[in-house]
Amino acid sequence: GLYRHGDQVILSYSVGSANVLELPSLEKNDNAKAIVRTIRIDKSDKPLAIKVLNASKFVLSFPAPPQGTRPTERIDLALLARLAGVVDEATAAFDGYDYARALERTEQAFWSFCDDYLELVKGRAYGAQGEEKAASANATLRIALSTFHRLFAPFLPFATEEAWSWWQDGSVHAASWPKAAELGVGDETDEVLTVAAEVIGAV
Hints:
This protein has a 4-stranded antiparallel sheet with strand order 1-2-3-4, with no helix packed on it. It has helices at residues 46-60, 74-95, 99-125, 131-152, 157-165, 191-202, and strands spanning 2-5, 8-15, 18-29, 32-42. By secondary structure, the chain is of the alpha+beta class. Helix content is 53%, strand content 17%. A hairpin with a 2-residue loop joins strand 2 and strand 3. The chain has 6 helices and 4 strands, in the order E-E-E-E-H-H-H-H-H-H. It is elongated, with a radius of gyration of 18 Å.
């Protein structure tokens, strides 16, 4: 897969069961020019790719919220606040060529999203607490899903492209990189979600 982040071009491909990220660049030394290839090789991402596909199917099984719906519930805003922090960290990591850090933070947030947030809101998303609260949950789920698809795109090019095609037009690799500001959380923090996750873990 070919991915662009700012003025950087990133190539993502597989060799056997290993995943490869390659960053080609042009270096100049006096009058000489050379193409430099920075390569990172990681273990297979199949379990993560499968989880991204399965979680995407689950989120998209809930009713779509009315167009223009914005999250209103505190725990929904807390999830988006956490995700805004991840977007900022992943963006800074990419800008610093630290792709491992970008993947690490995105993956940590994604597993928490699946293990904690989805468990907390699935009943509400189906309408157990009324239409208004269901709309807030489903709007949050889709905002989060869009963000995760774009954050994972450089690392899981095929899985994210497939999942993206289920509900969006065009290619995820042509979509804009997520920005914390687009999540619209203001001064909200993820404290409520942290407490709720601790309660789930204690049960």
